[in-house]
Amino acid sequence: MGRRLHGRGALFDTDPAGLAPRLVGLRPHQHRVTPYEHPRELPFVVLSGARGLGKSAVLGELRSAYKGHTPVGLIDCEDTEFAGPPPGRPAEAWSRVSQALLVLAEQLAEQVTGAGRIQFPRLMTGLVAVAAGGWGDADSERIRREVQRILLLNESGSWVGGFAGRWAGRVAAKVVAAATGTGPLLSAAVEATLESLSDGFAGRRHQRASAWYRDYPNAGDNARRGLILLSGHFRAGGTSREHAERHLVRALLADLTDAYTGVLPRMKRLGRPLVLLDNAQTAPGPGLVEAVLRDRSEGVTDQVVFFAAVRGTGRPALRNAGRRALPEVARSSDWAPDPGSASSRALLVSLPPLSGDDTLHIVGADPSVPPRLPQAIHRLTGGNPLGTTLLAESAEQNLTDASSLGELLTADVRLHAEHDGRPAYLELLDRLVPPDRLDELTVLAAAHDHDSACALADALLPEDFGPADVRALQTRLVSEGLPAVPGRFVGDAFVRTLLLLRLHHRDADHGQWRTAHETLIDHYADPSEERVRYRLHHELALGNTESAVAYLRDTFATLPTREWLKALRFIASAPYFHAHDADGRDFTGHDDRRAAVALGRTDAGHEPPEGVEAGLHLRVRRLLYAVWQLTDPLTLPDETVGQRLRFELEQLSNLRPAGNALLWRASRDWPDDALAGRTPHIPDDDEGEA
Fold it and tell me: Would you say which domain of life the source belongs to (predicted)?
């Protein structure tokens, strides 16, 4: 696998064979065959998950592993090539699906070791008929340009060097002459193409191909009529176009099947052809996927291996797909289609996050990397492959000048030699969130639910972004694969951290950051027990610790111990991007004073309020700062602070006999959890609870 493609062995392993070798029939990067898992009917594999989980990287590795060994075609459905017709091409004679088929066939046609180019006479003829439907007022040069690109799909490039290229030129001239003549344009272009195909190639394979459109619905055993009907259906749009596009997809697969038919081709060609569709949730992806699944369900067989990548999992066309986590397909996919369901022909494989060991291999290869950095990166990213890889790159470029993950994220990272560097967190956000909603998500990331998001939208977003837009955006995040987590508008902790970092750095004086948290402080002004915790959380984000310390101190003896620990954990999860002054205001220093407070180094200069027990006040203050620092995803774990956390919780357990067991257990669990990058666990045993 590629240098940075880790945790994906279930797809690429060779001994025993992973999913890709079992479907393709070849070991990656080798000409050695491996037994097919599904020799008759194979699943249409769909890799699913949120942005950044490495779906595109997997498809790129598949292309690299098999290119030159077996026919491979890869398209990104979000590429601008599929956004609209080229200049001069009318929309009624072009579609994303037809363009995708042309681009895929051009790649699949390339010569591989031990076998010549694959020719696509069926697809070529159908695409000429489609293009001809838009030549009504075209000049001859545009017609020649369009038709010659399509005709080159039939180039053999083998036994008669240059013959097919010369043939394409001659046919293009005939088609141009026919299309610009006085007779019916479409009929003349189709006739010229069919005649030239029959005349230029005498083999039975090409004869079969030239007659293939006789079976088009209502063609009456007449290929010319079938192609004219195909062109008409395509121009009509709607379901008629979908019908025509499905026939073009079938033409591509029939041409590929033909290339593997007969004794000689089968002896030459090792492995199945491979089609890769990135971002297949975007057109032309759905049209291609549904056409293949529907044909396979109706008994139109092919032996093409499809891997598609989609964001999210809730696609209607995949409703009845088999569903597996990646580790479950390492040795067998255990897949069998339902005869009555087209979508059951798909196998939806979810890509898991990277493990801690994977992160260590990616980040810890350089001996100069601090020992706890890989673990801290894994905690921050949650195993997101894109985040892990880009932070590793930032560490490689900036580690001498950066002392925390926050600084690695805000430091410029240069991903391409020809481009200037940009802050790492901006590079990540470009790829992890919908780009058209980045500004809105930057603000709403501080919210916890719909109501708090609406309060932020009202304060910081344009007037036309209302409650309905808030709901639509949250629904979109879930549909793209981000988790829905109670208490967070943006459920993915890593993405949320990056968005909050962008909010903090949006203006030099952090004005929008402050306004967002002040808005939420006002929103949660109600003194109810649940809302006060949210208010204190946002006060802490602005550096105001006094209210949080007072609340935790005053409720220590009255709240159930488990609820008190939950409150401490939630309040201390407030973001902290750099130091605050004594009045809670941002300043430009980079000191993190939390460790000093947690370790008691500031106790002498801190005067507890009058009338409170000074010892309990200082202990709660140290504890709050310890949890705040240890659970901050942007800091490296500090073992000294962890030891102090253990001590403070242990001492508190002596002050609360009724909750002694829970506090004592937390004193053992929380430091280990924090240092291991886990969320501190609330003990579930209520022994000793009041």
Answer: Bacteria
